[in-house]
Design a protein that fits this description.
Helices cover 33% and strands 13% of the residues. It contains 11 helices and 10 strands.
């Protein structure tokens, strides 16, 4: 009878969560963008020097890397010009080739909302115009970095809004710039380029995020699709020789990271402003990465019940003692998006984790 009572309480909390009285509000239902990028059919039908091209849907990133390593520059440029959307999103393809391909792909859309992404100083590592659009941008020298961090954001992020005006240290790009500057290797100029420096940071909007904090944000459907894409993205980093990344996972992005954790080679996984990671404990994530968690005192995410019932809710609070994550100090963080504000304890701790300075 006691177990039945606990189930009823959990169900009631889940309904509360969805109904919006615990911090959730209405949001539009989103269709997850999955699968290989546009132009894949033409890519599959093409060849180079009589060789079949690696299938974007099934070829492992290491296979892709080996394929490009066997091509001369003329063949690479031929593929880039003929199939920019595929090359720009192909995990394992050479990084400079992807940057160039995505400049072409962005410009080819002819859409003003994406125009700024095609600037010559941007290092756009992925661009997919389907749906609300997906984008990933590199800050720093990813080819030669000693440390790599990836920002995995939550709701209301997409390619269309990526360059929209917002607080300088909020949003995926703002967080990435702030983190790189805090490590001492960034210029803080907002440019994606930069040679030298030990740390590179990627702002990764490589999945369809929820809009608002409605049912999409309360269940795991979009997170599951995002987790598969994040796992492939990190495999792509590995294939081009990048060091094992630190994943900084904000809000619903921490749900994505929780589901992807066992399928990545991340060195550290940092959840902040998290509604839960779809696991009862850090050990249950099934990762060899160190797991960290932070939540500021005025972050509204604290009002979201940490339950999971019938697929609704994301489970245990990562900042709770029972979860077992390492705590990141965040006593001076303001609101839900203030974790990367210069001078905060959280940003200083994040920078130390990103640089591998914490043991």
């Amino acid at each position: 009878m006691r177990r039945f009572g606990r189930t009823l309480v959990t169900a009631a909390l889940a309904v509360t969560l969805v109904g919006g009285t615990a911090g959730w509000a209405s949001g539009d239902s989103q269709e997850a963008v999955t699968g290989p990028p546009p132009g894949t059919a033409a890519w599959r039908a093409d060849t180079v020097s009589g060789r079949a091209l690696p299938d974007p849907a099934s070829a492992a990133p290491r296979e892709v890397a080996a394929f490009f390593a066997g091509l001369d520059d003329t063949a690479r440029q031929q593929l880039l010009r003929s199939h920019p959307l595929v090359v720009g999103n192909l995990e394992g393809a050479p990084l400079p080739l992807r940057y160039e391909a995505n400049r072409i792909a962005v410009a080819a859309t002819g859409e003003a909302r994406y125009a700024s992404l095609a600037a010559p100083d941007r290092q756009i590592l992925a661009f997919d115009p389907r749906g609300r659009g997906q984008v990933a941008e590199v800050f720093g020298d990813l080819e030669h970095a000693e440390h790599v961090s990836v920002i995995v954001p939550g709701s209301d992020n997409d390619a269309a809004a990526y360059d929209a005006p917002r607080g300088p240290y909020t949003g995926p790009a703002g967080m990435a710039r702030a983190l790189r500057e805090a490590t001492g290797t960034g210029s803080g100029t907002g440019s994606g380029t930069g040679t030298g420096g030990a740390t590179a940071v990627v702002a990764w909007i490589g999945y369809t995020t929820p809009v608002g904090v409605g049912l999409d944000a309360a269940d795991g459907r979009l997170a599951r699709a995002g987790a598969a894409r994040l796992a492939r993205f990190t495999a792509g980093l590995d294939a081009v020789g990048a060091p094992d990344p630190v994943l900084f996972c904000h809000s619903y992005g921490s749900v994505v990271c929780g589901l992807a954790a066992r399928h990545t080679d991340a060195a550290d996984l940092v959840a902040f402003g998290s509604p839960g990671m779809r696991a009862d404990t850090a050990a249950a994530l099934g990762t060899g990465a160190r797991v960290w968690a932070a939540r500021g005192p005025s972050d509204w995410i604290a009002d979201v019940p940490n339950v999971e019932f019938a697929g609704i809710g994301h489970g245990a609070d990562p900042t709770s003692a029972a979860f077992g994550a390492r705590r990141v100090p965040a006593a001076d963080v303001q609101g839900h998006t203030g974790y990367f504000m210069p001078g905060t304890q959280s940003l200083a701790a994040f920078a130390a984790i990103a640089e591998g300075a914490v043991r």
